């Protein structure tokens, strides 16, 4: 048990293994094996295997939601719970996508849109589209080949991948899966032991990693109840539980917290600048004040993000923060002093276009690619990327934009961004007593 | 298969046939025949035929939604999918109607409303009411006689019809279905081959068409997933699919895109003005800036529209654009320099009155007439028009207006137009744990 | 059939009978008898009678919604349809009550509220509470004794009743049901034949009626589809229908319109002032401009109302109009030049208190008393009134008000009145793919 | 029957018994015994006992909603009805929690959050967290040991408990359950007989109570229909009812009102200041004006609260009042002249943090602890407190705050507080006719 949980958090093994204290030194995770024994006993598992056999053809997936739908039905319950869960009541997690519905388009007509080019440059790398695969931990929960699946699809589509510190494949495996010249970035959780962190960063830089994304929104890993509940279920089936178990799940979070340094602060930034020449990007900026500070500290970029709604509930969506951040930067004419990225809830090309038009250089996509990977492997992720590109081309054309630089705030209606409409509780009696309108009745059958 | 799809897009055959490149020269579409073989195999088809037999009497349709209800039950699934679908998540498609709920009335009382006259003049033609039949492609999917059904009903009610470039009947057939003096307009998709476009326009003008509506919101035809999925279903039942099918649907869209010229731009407008004396109207204007440009380019009108929500999702509703456009025109005192029309989501006379009061000369209605036609043919469309007129008379009276020119912004409460309220995601636990209020209980039955 | 409808609508018979053209002269309606023959055939009718037998005890009705619930189950379908229906999509009808949810309280504490007095004076009559029974046509549909049921309950509770022109009991019957000194008002539909109208008004004044409410929001009676459909059902079951029936319902509306004069206008007001000394109140004012006019024309009062949502859909709620009207009157310091009443959607004492605090002298209540009457007769209406009074006492105490004049705008939070929030259409895929949060699971049963 | 109700409400017996008029002198309540006879007859009761046997393990409760879920299933129906009910349509009751969704966070990153300390000082007492157990009547309905259960858990977690005047245990019992030095406050309903009130207050002070919370939002106890209905059910099953029962429930409220003095007013405050040195706090302040007055009258604190939504429906949520109150205090620079507390709807640490950041010294929590107590006794309440603390630590860290004084308005996005969004009634036809988007279909099973 303990073992199983520990295994889940062996990050960047190639780099780290030598540096880990012995009790964290457990060799590579083989999740498929570990899970199997348990799952066999599970009566639901048979049905799941049946569902896998009959899963829809890949070509029947027409948008990113479709992969989520299929994944939900074919993934192991615990894996689904881990990927799909968010903090507390998952308000922020869902707000992330729904916030995009507060922004509407003001398309221009009669523009020659014969040729549309949505390629762009992020942190110096030209890539085929303004989105990237963001870092997500524990890829092997969804697919036996883990993060390397994403690497391969990213290559097919000339898309940048961000490698997570807490990957389930080793850093070397992920690098090896990439082809010569394929750009990857590194997402970094900073360790209390800074010499370990230094070695990770420098190894990555040495291996050609092109950007260092320091996660700043996770001094402690979030409480995700869906995930806790799913684990509890497993445990409960096998063991005698006592009420002293109270803190076990919490304990895991704490174990990680001892790995992630909660004392990391602005004071540490200059040190990072001494140990690497990679552009440094702060992942998880959540208000204008911190974006301004980021410029002042001389970092190369920020990701406005709330960690996919997995950390603090009622944190605002990335897209809403983006509006505030860009306004503050433009006020000081600092919008070119760093690159702003945005993630959280991106599901449609229209979402991407909104972020780019507001001023983002690119957007990160997390769960959708995990779902595509879990349901259909490399081909799934490739199709997900293809669909996004088809939508991008179509929608830029319909907006009257032929290139990324045509996308700017004048094509957006932003009046409603920033409002959080909370419907007044329904008047139960009044609404249940209402007798809805009817539709015309069919003729009664001749007989009967 | 290929054949079937190609056939669907043979527009304006009479005019075009001589000009089409040979591989697009396929003769008139007979959709009913083509579909039949497949439908016979369909087990659902029997139920549908049963439903047709028992469909409600026409007189039981009391509003435009009723036709939609009946059509959904009696139309072929693929035809229903084509008519009813919209872009992406169909947010814009539904917003089109629901945006009208943001506008409320400030009716005037104690006005002599004995006589109410809602007739009006559009592009120089007096007609019985301020709405027209807008252009919609592929009428034969819904009714074997296609667009001519609309022509006949339009005549009965003295309503203008706009003929689509992509009609399933030939242009001549549609003209012939009209009676002497009946006004029709032409909706135009501009071809890469401008000589072809020129011939279409001039033929139309020669045959007495009274207005040229150039569609400017469709440089590429939209992705409508409901439609794609319905087609996929069909195909899947017959053929071995491989994942290389990925782009087939896309391919059809592209075939059409090669017919519709995506490079059409403002620079082309003067040319149109040289080839015709018909009033030129741009169909699909979506912001004030382009409305201003339209005046500057000297066209006679614009339709604020998002193509029925079939092109770009999160494009704003026609009625919301109308508010913005009229404000910009009035600011320059240009409101009389062109006629502004509006379409999208019109289902009630109150919707029409709102648009007219804001400044529109008339409104276009698409799907409701298609549904009335599909469910009940000419008589259906006639009743749909009659119901709208009855509602118009009633509602103008209740507003205190006796003629079109009485309708102006002072009768409207516009405070909420332009807001896009997106409810915060529900707090699932909090709401599911709420125990609703109860109603009084009946006495228990004497026995039991 | 024809007969049945005719009989139902013999209003103010005592007064009118002598003046009606012979073909409208049909004697008193006995609806219970007339209906029976048809209802016997109805298979649903048996179930309804069963439901009546088991209906909840009157004391189990704790609020006005409860009467609606019971009435829906025990009333005849057509009667229910007539009472409960509203115009078009019934948006305004439902908005009427839900608009009250836009106003919140700012109660004052530490006020001596030992004694609470909510009696008030309306048009010179002191009465026990600031609400009255508004005029509603066709009382006999709900109860064999029709409007006289309301008269009796009104007396018990010292509440004013407004007698409808289109009552199903004769005017004399309703007057006779009242006790000596009981105040009643008259609601007036103005006839094309002004001498008839004059006689009605003067007879009423002669018999001691204390106020003349001229309905100004119904130059034509509304289209209520629920009601139309319910009638259609009946007809359809018995007769061969042809599509020429199209206009039958419409025809009726027109017949009534010929009774109600749609040419009534401000020019007629001085004439009314010459024929009666009763205070004149315009029922159905819907914007500030007309309220101002009402003062200028010297009438004694107005009712801000949209006829219970039965006339024009998207007309604003009475309470919202009230805010606008009071602001306009106060701006000119005219708030004491006429009495403002308000009706529509009043269901709770909190609704009443909001209207009074905004400046209304009293509020009218329509459907709730009809439902109480239909379900439980006089005792039902009495209990409905009692419940309102109990709520009034309680809520005034909790607000820190001991008398009507303590209720003023400072106890209200009005920030949200006037906004019409229309939720953006839901992102179907995104919301259906969301996997809600779970609750703890029960232990599995010992066995199994 | 009568007896049962009497017994339930013997508050503060130790203090009061000597002072009560003889007819209110009934000895200590033993609810479990009294209820049993009736419940045995109840067929639902067997199922409830079954549910209790299988209730989830305590460790499976991961948040405060979980306790509500379990309590709903294991509590007696009448007890559940009493705890869970609110005034009228329970709009305010539900608004209390949902209002928190109008406030969002602007977390700060890169703050050293290694150590987080959420302890604080309220009315001079240091305690482990900024929440307290607020006063709720009738604890024995939920647990045979009543309020002492809360006392014990409060001690475990170093949390302050407020003792209710209307406790079901005697005041002495509750004091005795506390350990030496454990801080308790007293909630006071003021009696018409001030000498009785004086004795209660002085006894409490003598026994070391550290704060006097005078409830000012309940001059009359609220009408809670869910509760009324649940009682009616019971009665109905046993007795012959007549319609004269109308006022029975009302009568009880009146009996209580004769106990609680509705004439209590600001004039009484100076008197309280003469009889005690305990800090005086007004519980139930609901607008800025009264908060200002409270300062002027020299009390030590206020609780912005609406009594858990149990008194006046459409009273605003505590958190919304808090915003208004703090603004008014800060405007006069009076924010340190009294301590402001807040209660109502607190369910998550994020709720607590929002209130504290706005300026509250602490928040009261009512129902959640009652539910935890009813479902799991002392251990349940302890776990509820533990969960809140875990959430507090986590969320403060994620916000970038290490101590209570770091929480201030700059971490909040308050743009939407104060708006009461009431969705326009849905367009039933339009929404029911919408044909939702589909998801990919599974392959048909090989056979079949
Ligand atoms: C003096 C003559 C009449 C008067 C005063 C009268 C009055 C009324 C009134 C007050 C209503 C309900 C109005 C409302 O909803 O507010 C009504 C409805 C109706 N009346 Fe009459 N009526 C008259 C003659 C007739 C005649 C001649 C017919 C039939 C041939 C008729 C058939 C109906 C029907 C079917 C309705 C229901 C209308 C609906 O569905 O909205 N009435 N009438
Ligand atoms: C010193 C005497 C009494 C005290 C202090 C007292 C206190 C209370 C309290 C605190 C409540 C609940 C209040 C709340 O909902 O916040 C209550 C409710 C109730 N009491 Fe008493 N009570 C007393 C005497 C009585 C008597 C004499 C009766 C009956 C004859 C009675 C019957 C009830 C009933 C039926 C309820 C439920 C009320 C409802 O449904 O809202 N009580 N009482
Ligand atoms: C399963 C999962 C694991 C994640 N793990 C990490 C991580 O280890 N480090 C990190 O910085 N962000 C992590 N994230 C956050 C993502 O980088 C990104 O911010 C977020 O997923 C974007 O939202 P989306 O999933 O809606 O696209 C994770 C997200 C998910 C869903
Ligand atoms: C099935 C269908 C086909 C359409 N085809 C065309 C077309 O060929 N050309 C065009 O300009 N607009 C086309 N439209 C858009 C309509 O002209 C119009 O903008 C829209 O239908 C109005 O919205 P409504 O359907 O809600 O009334 C089509 C709309 C539908 C529903
Ligand atoms: C069944 C019914 C019949 C009505 N008949 C009349 C009428 O004849 N004359 C009139 O002025 N108002 C009439 N009204 C409108 C009412 O006077 C009042 O404006 C409305 O009912 C108030 O709304 P409420 O029903 O929500 O309380 C009628 C309303 C109903 C429900
Ligand atoms: C069952 C119950 C009984 C209550 N009894 C009292 C009371 O006797 N005196 C009082 O001042 N407040 C009383 N309250 C109000 C609480 O002190 C507090 O204001 C409220 O419960 C806070 O809301 P919450 O339940 O959502 O946390 C009671 C609340 C409940 C739920």
From TrEMBL, chains A, B, C, D:
Domain FMN hydroxy acid dehydrogenase: 56-417
UniProt entry keywords in alphabetical sequence: Flavoprotein, FMN, Heme, Iron, Metal-binding, Mitochondrion, Oxidoreductase
Transmembrane annotation, as ranges: none
GO cellular component: mitochondrial intermembrane space
Annotated signal sequence range: none
InterPro entries: Aldolase_TIM, FMN-dep_DH, FMN_HAD, FMN_hydac_DH_AS, L-MDH/L-LDH_FMN-bd
Major place of residence: mitochondrion
Keyword rRNA processing (UniProt): no
Enzyme class, UniProt record, top EC level: oxidoreductase
Catalytic activity: (S)-lactate + 2 Fe(III)-[cytochrome c] = 2 Fe(II)-[cytochrome c] + pyruvate + 2 H(+)
Gene Ontology BP, a term: lactate metabolic process
Cofactor(s) in the UniProt record: heme b; FMN
Location of this chain's protein in the cell: Mitochondrion intermembrane space
The keyword Transcription is annotated on this UniProt entry: no
Enzyme Commission code: 1.1.2.3
GO molecular function: L-lactate dehydrogenase (cytochrome) activity; metal ion binding
Family note: In the C-terminal section; belongs to the FMN-dependent alpha-hydroxy acid dehydrogenase family.
Subunit-structure text: Homotetramer.
Name this protein carries in UniProt: L-lactate dehydrogenase (cytochrome)
Species assigned in the record: Neolecta irregularis (strain DAH-3)
